[in-house]
Write a structure and sequence with these properties.
TIM Barrel, two-stranded antiparallel sheet, 10 strands, 10 helices
Length: about 280
Amino acid sequence: MEPPRSLHSLPAATWRIGDTPLTSRFLLGTAGYPSPQTLREAIVASGSQVLTLGLKRTLAVQGGDDNGFVDIIKTTAREQGAHLLPNTAGCRSAREAITLAHMARELLGTHWVKLEVVGDEQTLQPDPFELVAAARQLVSDGFEVLPYCTDDLVTCQRLVDAGCRVLMPWGAPIGSGLGLLNPWALRTLRARLPHTTLIVDAGLGAPSHATAAMELGMDAVLLNSAVAHAVDPVRMATAFRHAVQAGRTGFEAGLMPTSDVAVATTPVGGQPFVLL
């Protein structure tokens, strides 16, 4: 009999963003790191194949990026074979987001865009109406649109109808670190949109949150603050990398069903036994 192989020796299962196959299910944001070197080391430790990059920040620092963050992101992505995912963070309307996405395609040479349209200043909750309008136009313009959205099923269905093959529902408000506030809603999305790639984005504050998301059957997670603002971002990136892998492996292995009552590990009811 062939001996069991370790987790590290098992071939990584692929998944896709659009038509692009990937093996890492951990997408990493690149904002807010204490230094360019820490950012680079965190990217390497994460094993991420997709790095998000704020468009407004990128455009603002062209020619004046004294700390070299943008160059670090581009160089490390190239060395790691990772893809850049520009985002439209900070946009308040579909028109603004569409304009910014087109600028990013020219500047970064990618048709991928993480679409963000803010609807509320306190929670930074996406505006579903502007989001769907922007998504529909950008899909028509040839973009692979990854909309950052809430976990509302109807909004997500409208985004899929607009042509989005990937959705990025939140776990909790951006930067809150609260984890999965509504696992039921995420579980519902997974059940009702079985052929849509789902990436939990925002609100994950601990590696256990990432594991929980992956155990629900999500395809991947994206986070930024939990790594960038950690005491040791590099070690935290490593922790999340393992947490994502563990959650996905657990989901694929088949989690045991839950029960409201105790279930004996070794049932003896109806079985003959001898008292000694």
